[in-house]
Automatic annotation (TrEMBL):
It comes from Pedobacter soli. It comes from the Bacteria. The keyword Nuclease does not apply. Residues 258-417 form the Thioredoxin domain. This is Peroxiredoxin. The lineage of its organism: Bacteria, Pseudomonadati, Bacteroidota, Sphingobacteriia, Sphingobacteriales. SUPFAM superfamilies: Thioredoxin-like (SSF52833).
Length: 440
């Protein structure tokens, strides 16, 4: 266990609902080691005064080999479980610096919190409870109300917020009362959501490790929908939706591009050993290079890493390199070594991972000033053998988006095949080139 984990565990342990009443003579009996029942569970978060249900499965009679699996439609996300007291457990959300911390109650239920583990960060702390054996998410079996309509299909969603929010596209599938779907936006997708339609009301929720979200809405008499998204504490955004099979987001290949006068990109950031790494290093000259701007706190970045890491391991010998530049929740290299190191180890990342600084879009724009703007973690920049930027893709479309993911995968492979096949002898050094910009 790392020093970071030991520190976090100690802090969490001190604030749990742990303890026992001492006997009259001050001697406590040996604590009873409580266990979590195997099977499916139903949990409920309290988010912005709204209950957000989620489902999970627990397998393993001893915690050392136990698996905690979050269930969202067809999606499965596995996490390890650690006992931190005879009646308490700690479930780290893999590469996300957050955890579920829970007490096993005498009646077998769980109660606890979802907590940020970022040192010094006063982020979300969401209480939850969970009961074993309940497989439903929103409505108990036998209590469904006949749906007023079937809202399967593609919807254009307009959002209302203090800050301008781009429209989103929802792809929904309804079978009877059961509703599943995904919300897509220029920065990425919501991952798979699961919910229900009851009369003229619908609701979807999702919890895959990052902060849980809930989408509650109403089917209006004119066939439109309206509702609210709640995510984290006091984060509520209203939306209206119109069914439109032709609804599309802005072209992700045209949102981010190089400013006029630039053809190349360069930078200098430390890797996880502290060594400065730049595109002008010999390692990258004459190679096709994939640059990913990511953050371990970002679920779409994780999904993109799940895509890129095995692809790179299979194709590196063809003359390809990749670099992930991580922007984290603390501007601290030691902290980034921990978080980005977790990402590297979890997903077998063999390419360089660098630390760019604090996860702030304005900061990314400052450190990579050749970009016209930066709006999404992740952003993928593909560079040819001459060091020239050939394509920039904003956001990421995961497997749950279906045809959008397949289109992304097809175009990605086609472009990489084309660039790899190009003449490797006509390379140019990025160092000193008038079109090159450096950032530190």
């Amino acid at each position: 266990m790392s020093v970071h984990e030991i520190f976090k565990g100690a802090v969490l342990l001190s604030s749990l609902f742990i303890g026992g009443q001492a006997l009259a003579d001050g001697v406590q009996p040996a604590p009873v080691q409580k266990t979590i029942k195997e099977g499916v569970w139903r949990g409920v978060f309290n988010v912005s005064e709204t209950q957000v249900p989620f489902n999970f499965e627990f397998k393993g009679k001893d915690f050392e080999h136990a698996t905690f699996t979050l269930l969202n439609g067809t999606r499965r996300d596995d996490f390890h479980v650690k006992r931190i007291a005879p009646d308490s457990v700690f479930i780290k959300m893999n590469t996300y610096d957050a955890a579920l911390v829970a007490k096993i109650n005498d009646d077998g239920t769980l109660s606890g919190e979802y907590r940020s583990l970022v040192p010094g960060f006063r982020g979300n702390s969401l209480p939850f409870t969970a009961e074993h054996g309940k497989k439903y998410r929103f409505v108990e079996p036998g209590k469904d109300v006949a749906p007023a309509a079937n809202i399967s299909g593609k919807w254009e969603l307009k959002f209302y917020s203090k800050e301008q929010v781009p429209n989103k596209v929802a792809i929904l599938k309804q079978t009877g009362n059961r509703l599943t779907g995904v919300i897509m936006q220029v920065t990425g997708d919501s991952r798979e959501l699961e919910g229900t339609v009851q009369g003229d009301e619908f609701v979807l929720s999702g919890f895959t490790g990052p902060s849980p979200k809930i989408y509650k809405g109403k089917i209006n008499p004119d066939g439109t929908i309206s509702g609210v998204i709640s995510a984290g504490i006091y984060d509520n955004t209203k939306f209206d939706g119109v069914k439109d099979d032709k609804a599309e987001l802005p072209d992700p290949y045209k949102i981010t591009f190089l400013k006029e006068g630039y053809k190349k990109l360069d930078f200098s950031f430390p890797d996880l050993t502290g060594k400065q790494v730049s595109l002008s290093d010999d390692k990258y000259k004459g190679k096709v290079v994939i640059v990913e701007i990511v953050g371990t706190w970002c679920p779409n970045c994780t999904d993109q890493t799940v895509f890129l890491s095995p692809w790179f391991n299979k194709n590196q010998k063809r003359g390809v390199e990749a670099i992930a530049i991580g922007f984290e929740q603390k501007d601290d290299l030691e902290y980034a070594k921990y978080t980005l190191g977790k990402l590297r180890d979890k997903y077998d990342v063999k390419y360089d991972i660098l630390f760019g600084g604090l996860a702030d879009k304005k900061l990314v724009s400052q450190k990579l000033p050749a970009l016209n703007k930066f709006i999404a973690f992740p952003t993928t920049i593909i560079i040819d053998r001459k060091g020239e930027v050939r394509e920039i893709y904003t956001g990421y479309t995961g497997t749950v988006t279906g045809k959008y993911y397949k289109a992304y995968e097809k175009k990605f492979n086609a472009l990489l095949d084309e660039l790899i096949a190009e003449d490797a002898t006509a390379t140019a050094s990025v160092t000193g080139d008038k079109n090159t910009q450096k950032s530190k």
